[in-house]
Amino acid sequence: MAVDAARSEEGFTSARATRVLGAACRAVGLDGGGAELIRLGENALFRLASAPVIVRVARGEEWWPTARTEVAVSRWLAAEGFPAARIVEDLEQPLLVDGHPVTFWHLIVEGDRKATYGELGGVLRDLHSLTVPDGLELPSFDPFDKQELRLDRAVVSDDDKVFLRKRWFELRDRYDELRFETPKGPVHGDAHVQNLMVDDQGKVILIDFEAFCFDHPEWDLMVTSVEHHSLGWQTDEQYAEFVAAYGRDLYDWHGYETLRGLQEFGMTTWLMQNVQEDEGTAAEYRRRIAGLRNDDALRDWRPW
Q1: What's the predicted TM-score (pTM) here?
Q2: Neighbouring C-alpha atoms within 13 Å toward the C-beta of 188
Q3: Among candidates 57, 77, 62, 41, which has minimal Cα distance to 212?
Q4: CA dihedral in degrees (68, 215, 74, 116; nearest 10)?
Q5: What is the per-residue pLDDT across 36-53, written as a single tens digit (0 to 9) for each?
Q6: Which of 2, 63, 220, 258 is positioned for an S-S bond with 58, CB 3.0–4.6 A?
Q7: Which residue in 12, 11, 3 sits closest to 32, CA to CA?
Q8: Per residue in 125-157, pLDDT tens?
Q9: What does each C-alpha distance from 271 to 42, 81, 121 come to in angstroms?
Q10: Is there a contact between 84 and 35 (Cβ–Cβ < 8 Å)?
Q11: Separation between Cα atoms, residue 237 and residue 255, nearest integer Å
Q12: Are 182 and 216 in contact (CB under 8 A)?
């Protein structure tokens, strides 16, 4: 279902996403007034004031297949009884509003604590043990699928774009040489601890299925492994809990350095999309691009 909203030329900003949100809510009979923007990344995430619903607005129509996958994955995990975010079932989903895919999700009422790295390892272990049913078509993991769009659209210097394109081609060559030894299965695709929520009943819930795919489990271990070994975002104890719960430390694998390069590149270009939002985002992007230019330098990157 497609809905037209007032078009704009300013790109995917918080202002544009808010206009799309209003049109989407009107189309399905929800009240979008007073909605709170809680995150602007690959999607804009809004919490409605009028109902316990989270609305996800994607950056452009090219994300339509991704939105369809998110809806299908949510339905499958619900049928499995897996603790994961749930779509609002009685609404037509996804919705296309002025070229932006929109989906509606049940609000998860958070409890008084955050998920632990041990819990992340356990959730990933359980997810990777599932069998994808016939009829659920999932893409392969593609670490490059959004990079060209990001580079084309980003408001950064030409020098940065030249460097990033050169690094992109170097990483593609290294990726082509990767050899996996594990079987393929369901993969979250962006498996960091912020994509777990703990509800007010103490239940740990997996969220954010936009990168969900059918591929090797290393892609899910990559995120936390790089965050620890390269960026120092976890203590040794936290990372040990993650490894113990899952049963493997990716740092010991021969392909770790290639996956590290892919992960850091993706983290930088993801943030690059929003440098025009505020100076804090722009400053963090500058830290990250400086790190990419010197592989051996200590990373002073901040979680975002």
Answers
A1: 0.87
A2: 28
A3: 77
A4: -130
A5: 999 987 799 999 999 999
A6: 63
A7: 3
A8: 999 999 999 999 999 999 988 788 888 888 899
A9: 9, 34, 25
A10: no
A11: 24
A12: yes
